[in-house]
Design a protein that fits this description.
The strands form 2 sheets. Strands 5-4-3-8-7-6 form a 6-stranded antiparallel β-sheet, sandwiched between helices. Strands 1-2 form a two-stranded antiparallel ribbon. A hairpin with a 6-residue loop joins β6 and β7. 45% of the residues lie in helices and 19% in strands. It folds into 2 domains: 59 residues, Winged helix-like DNA-binding domain superfamily/Winged helix DNA-binding domain (Arc Repressor Mutant, subunit A, Orthogonal Bundle), CATH 1.10.10; 173 residues, Beta-Lactamase. The protein is built from 8 helices and 8 strands; from the N terminus they run αααββαβββαααβββα. The protein has 264 residues and is of the alpha+beta class. The chain starts with 7 loop residues before the first helix and ends in a 16-residue tail after the last helix.
């Protein structure tokens, strides 16, 4: 018989959220009857969810509805779904054009998250799995996202611990500020040997309908293949793919600098 790995408390909390999504404005008694739980259990779940912002209480009616955090999660999920629908065909085309790995990277707080990948066709390749989390101060897509992050978060990362992953990882705050400024000025980034030894990454920003950078798309592979011709061709291909994805998401064309294929 299959083992049940569900956590009962989480399962019940999700049931409460789903009930409020379907029937907002319910009180403790109504929710308890609808879900077959005790009123004391429902009250404790609601109290916990309210403290985290996932549930909001109407004190006049003693009823509950979804809180702002639930709406934030829904909005993020909607954006990521739309992003994937637009980006995946471009990622396939970019992988076919370059034969290298293609990654779609997001920023989650002070970490990067690989949302999707396409595996390269070379025998010798580096492959970042979807779901991989990493630092923001190293790597092509990660550093690009740090460059476009809010200033307060950017400074928090710069002045925090800067872990050295390779001899080329930037761990000096002033040097990192200079590189991030250059990334913002030129609108793309090429990283070499700073996160994974023997690897390169060419990244460009993806913008949402409001013009804000919401993700990065990158081509990555073994540094041994990264000659000047590929450097220029990969950069052009990545920037073009990012521009097409951004346009389909409703972003206006960005006035970025012309590429000179400079690496950090």
């Amino acid at each position: 018989m299959d083992r049940d790995y569900r956590i009962a408390a989480v399962d019940r909390a999700l049931s409460v959220l789903e009930a409020l999504a379907d029937h907002p404005g319910q009180g403790v008694t109504e929710l308890a009857e609808r879900l077959g739980m005790t009123k004391s259990l429902v009250f404790r779940i609601l109290h916990t969810l309210e403290a985290r912002g996932y549930v909001a209480r109407d004190p006049e009616r003693a009823s509950y509805g979804l809180g702002y955090r639930s709406w934030v999660l829904g909005e993020r999920s909607s954006r990521q779904t739309a992003l994937l629908q637009v980006a995946l065909p471009e990622m396939d085309a970019l992988r076919d054009a370059t034969s290298e790995n293609v990654n779609l990277v997001l920023r989650e707080g002070d970490r990067s998250l690989v949302l999707a990948t396409r595996e390269g066709r070379h025998h010798m390749r580096l492959f970042a799995q979807a779901g991989r989390r990493g630092p923001l101060h190293a790597g092509g897509g990660s550093m690009l996202l740090l460059a476009y992050a809010p200033e307060a978060l950017r400074e928090a990362v710069i002045t925090g611990p800067l872990t050295r992953f390779t001899p080329r990882t930037i761990t000096d705050p002033d040097a990192l500020r200079r590189v991030l400024g250059r990334i913002r000025a030129q609108g793309w980034h090429i990283a070499q040997d700073d996160l994974d030894e023997g690897a390169f990454s060419v990244a460009a920003p993806i913008r949402g309908h409001d013009g804000e950078v919401i993700a990065a798309i990158s081509v990555a592979g073994a540094l041994a293949r990264f000659d000047e011709e590929r450097r220029l061709s990969h950069l052009a291909a990545v920037r073009a793919a990012a521009a097409r994805i951004s346009a389909r998401l409703g972003a206006a064309p960005a006035a970025d600098a012309e590429p000179r294929a400079q690496a950090s």
